Amino acid sequence: MIETLNTLKINIDKNLNASVELARKLYLEGSIFIYPTDTLYGIGANPFNENAVEKINAIKGRNEGKKNILLINNIENLLEYVDIPSEKYLDFLLAVWPNPVSIVLRLNKKYKKILNASNAAFRIPNNRFCMKLLEKLKMPLISTSVNKSGKPPINEPSVIFEEFANIIDNIFYSTKKNFYIASTLIDLTVTKPKILREGKIKVDAMIDKYLM
């Protein structure tokens, strides 16, 4: 057990397993928290908890229609939520993940109704804390950048503490170096795959290989 688990600021490097257990508890309780990912620091919560989603929107000062990226632990779990058009799309996902690449996919009939949306962006992250947490949850985890709407993302833990300590339930952080580059974002719901945002990972060659 780590002493900081009784405080707002939790260094995951000191005890990863205890940090993951606390994050799992917060998720299931409907709390929101900040945590490191394979890209930017994210604000996390259960995407199926309306109060948690509303709280994130209020903190960021954005409209309710703004979509969040959802982290997930594996392809098998992903298939519970989305419709994949063909095997070649599955091959592409298996080739590109885990990596800082987020992909917009069509939700299946059940989750279109639950999330009140046609599509959602998913990612299997290349990050140990995230993957251990996602393996415990076996459910999607919201990952939206730590910032007010229209402002640049905040990724320095000391600044996150200063800006968000009084409005976020818990803040998980790491002292390990991170490149702090947003994920590549690809839309696979359109006829031709569309790169919506270029990130650290270049995917043009993989798109040509698997999808064209």
Helical content stands at: 25-40%
The total of helices stands at: 8
Q: Point out poorly predicted stretches.
A: 1-7
The percentage of residues in β strands lies in 15-25%
Counting structural domains, the number is: 2
CATH fold-level topology of the largest domain: DHBP synthase
**Rounded to an integer, what's the Rg over CA atoms?**
17 Å
Overview of this protein structure:
With 212 residues, the chain is an alpha/beta fold. The chain has 2 domains: 1-73 and 124-181, DHBP synthase, CATH 3.90.870.30; 82-116 and 182-212, no CATH class. It is built from 8 helices and 11 strands. It has helices spanning 16-29, 50-60, 75-78, 87-96, 109-115, 128-137, 157-164, 204-211, and strands spanning 9-11, 33-35, 42-44, 69-71, 82-83, 101-107, 119-123, 141-145, 170-173, 184-187, 194-197. Strands 1, 2, 3, 4, 5, 6, 7, 8, 9, 10 and 11 form an 11-stranded mixed sheet that branches. The longest helix is centred in the N-terminal third of the chain and has 14 residues, at 16-29. The protein is globular, with a radius of gyration of 17 Å. The N and C termini lie far apart (51 Å). Mean pLDDT is 92; it is low at 1-7.
Quick summary:
The chain is of the alpha/beta class and 212 residues long. The N terminus is likely disordered.
Keywords, separated by commas or semicolons:
212 residues; DHBP synthase; single chain; 2 domains; 11-stranded mixed beta sheet; 8 helices; 11 strands; alpha/beta
